[in-house]
Design brief:
Length: 182
């Protein structure tokens, strides 16, 4: 089984914010597959499904961003999923909106949600797909930026990255070797 985790904050007030691009990808995949997030398990909304013969667990943690690792860790133990079979999708303020970066190992950088996942799994050896969301003003409060609703033009730019991330997630679900990308 492979686990795809979209990081975000649960609740309508966080829809269309930079911090919720991981949830946007999860919603796109669920829609494409004709499935719905309705089952709650281990502090997350989950979908157990199959994709091209592979068992897949789609995950949207309900723990809020900074504690995402709690849900990822608990689900990995329950379903006996190794870190190499986990893909985490998240926002990246250091990437231009529309860009996507895929890595199979690496640091958490400044992202608290990814830091939580790394700490709870005890390794950096899992796939992560970062979606660029920009940061127009580096002197501004980062928390305010990632939790503020995106303007339509920004949402469209970020949407390009969401589409790319969705394609990478499908490759991961197929069990393909994924390569570093920019």
């Amino acid at each position: 089984m492979r686990m795809i985790v979209g990081l975000g904050n649960y609740g309508a007030e966080y829809n269309n914010t930079p911090h919720n691009v991981g949830f946007m990808v999860m919603d796109k995949i669920a829609s494409d597959l004709g499935v719905v997030f309705k089952k709650k398990r281990k502090n997350a909304l989950i979908i157990e499904t199959e994709f091209e013969g592979n068992k897949i667990l789609l995950v949207k943690p309900l723990t809020f961003m900074n504690n995402s690792g709690d849900a990822v860790f608990a689900l990995s133990k329950k379903y006996k999923i190794e870190p190499k079979d986990i893909c985490v999708i998240l926002d990246d303020v250091d990437l231009t909106a529309g860009l996507c970066r895929l890595r199979t190992v690496g640091s958490s950088g400044t992202h608290n949600g990814l830091r939580s996942v790394t700490a709870r799994l005890g390794t950096t050896e899992f796939t992560r797909i970062r979606i660029g969301v920009d940061t127009p003003n580096r002197s501004a409060d980062l928390a305010d930026f990632v939790l503020k609703k995106m303007a339509p033009a920004d949402l469209a730019n970020v949407g390009v990255g969401v589409e790319k991330a969705t394609r990478y997630a499908y490759d991961f679900m197929r069990g393909k070797e994924v390569a570093d990308t920019q």
